Structures are given as structure tokens and as C-alpha cells.
Amino acid sequence: MTPASRDDGSAGSAGSAGSAGPVSGRDWARAVELISAADEIALACHVSPDGDALGSMLAVGLALRAAGKRVTASFGDRRFSVPRLLRFLPGQELLADPAHYPAAPEVMVTFDVPTVGRLGVLTGNTVKANELVVLDHHPSNTGFGTLNLVDPDAAATAVLAEELIHRLGLPIDKDIATCLYVGLVTDTGSFRHSSTTPEAHAMAARLLDTGLDPEKISRELWDRSPFGYLKVLGVVLGRVRLEPEVGGGLVWTFVTRADRAAYGLPYDEVEGMIDVIRRTDEADVATILKEDDDGVWQVSMRSKGGVDVSRVSVALGGGGHAKAAGFTSHQPVEETIASLRALL
What we know:
Elements: H1 25-37, E1 40-45, H2 51-66, E2 70-75, E3 107-111, H3 123-128, E4 131-136, E5 147-150, H4 157-167, H5 174-187, H6 198-208, H7 214-222, H8 227-238, E6 241-243, E7 250-255, H9 257-262, H10 273-277, E8 285-291, E9 297-303, H11 309-315, E10 319-320, E11 324-329, H12 333-343
Parallel strand pairs: 1-2, 1-3, 3-4, 4-5, 7-8
Antiparallel strand pairs: 6-7, 8-9, 9-11, 10-11
């Protein structure tokens, strides 16, 4: 690997690969040094990975493998399974069940993980890692790594992943670009969210130039669902509640294991339901509680800008962004909503 030439004191340049402004050139240089010197790199993203987490991790994994590195990639779900919507991503042969993840990695790199708890069953591996490099764009990131490459202004963690690949002096082919593009479009809401910047569009242009298929990617991400999704969505919308007096307006609902089981719908298929709920004109904040296969409530929150939902989520043990955040609750629905309501 030949590191790309950069001024040691510079931050990531929006005019090159990525826009990781707050990350110093010295930190990038240190990351390149650690990764270049290691024979084996262990990569991890957060539990129940979304497009940005899995896409960023696989992109870096593919680039490192092409450079001759031994790479293991995983995420810490007890029931290890790639969400159906992301099974078209290249590089999944790099993935390993957490049980086969290195117990004490020489260098461990995390992607889109704001707090160590979001690594699930891989949390313990961070303690034994010789070096822990954190790539993330969440403002709520706690800086749990030995080296933290965190840029809250980046449109997606994929921006930092592209920058890392560039700094390592590695090429980006169509498969790597596809993974990065998925991270970029999912976290910008297909370039609809406020995180969309000129730099984000410039990055998309660079990735499109590799020959990736944006139509296929869009179809896989947003235009497919099993019939059971529509049936469960009907149930979930049937119990939706609007509380206009709470936090500039709160609209919320929930989906249980039993709801999903009735129509054979896997947990990861309900992720997009929040985007239907959030359309409510009378509410600034939308919330959906999703009961996972272990009976634990995974809570997603969205804001139109009047409320910083990351502050609410952090107070309840989670994290995220001002307009998109989440947390885990072991309490019943009404108690969870009561806690959330009080903070709003």
C-alpha cells in the first residue's frame, strides 16, 4: 500500500475524496500507518446494519483485500443475518459470524458506530484490540477508539470510508463504489435530507463514474418488499397515535413480534415504516417502536428540525443525529413512550 500524499496537518479535502473536515491530517496519517503495518484487519459495524454501516465496512474491506490484506468483517447481532434489502451488496464473502471474529484484533476498525454498546456481542473485542480505529459521522460519538476519525459534518460514514481508501492509495472499482454509493444515498435519504451537500453530490459523481448501476441500487433499496410488509404496515398504521401537544407534535406507533409473525415478516423489513409515519404534517417528531426477535424494543425517532432527537435518544441510552436517532428499551411500550414524552 502506498499512502496518498497529503499535508500532515490538513483535514480531509472536499475537493478530493471525501470531506472529513474535522479529522486532522495527522489522524489520517496515523490510521494509514496502523492499517498499512497490520497483516490482518478486523472490521465491524453496528448491530442491525443499515446501508451506510454495511456499505462503508464492505467498501473498505474490498479495498484492503485487493491490497493483499487478510480481512474479517462482521456485526454483533446474536442472530447474524444480513438484512434482505442489502443482500445485493458486493463483498459479503468477507463477512463472518461474530463467533468467528478475532478475539484480540491487531487492528480493529468500526464503521458508523457512535457508542461501543452498538457493537452488540462484538463489544468485548474492542477491549482486547491492540488498536481501535473509529470511523463515524454521528455527533453523539463518544470517542471510544484509540484513534477516532469522526466528522459530524460528513453526509455519511461512507464519506470517511472513501477518504480512508484514498489516503491508503487504493483504487475504487465498481464493487467498492457500489458499497460507498449505498452508504451515501441511504444516509442522505436519496439526497433529500439536509445532510445533502455539494460535496455529497460530487462524491456521487465520482462513484457513478466507475460504472455502477444507480437504477438497480434504487430498486433494491426502495422499490421492493414482500406482500407481508403491506399487511403489517396496515396493522401498524391502524394503531398510530398523534399527540400534537408534545414536542411540537409527536406521532408514534409500534410493531410487535406477533404482528410480524402473522405474515412471516423478518425484523429488518420494518425499518422503512418510520418514513411513512414521519410524513404527518401535524407532528415534528415521529417515533416507531419495533420489537425485535429477542423481545426488546428498538426505537427509531425522526425530526423535521424543531426537536433535536439525538439529545432525547442519548438521554435514553442511544444516539444519532439531530433529525434521526434511536435507542433500545427493555420497558413496555407505554412506559417507553412515557419516558420519551417527558423528555420531549
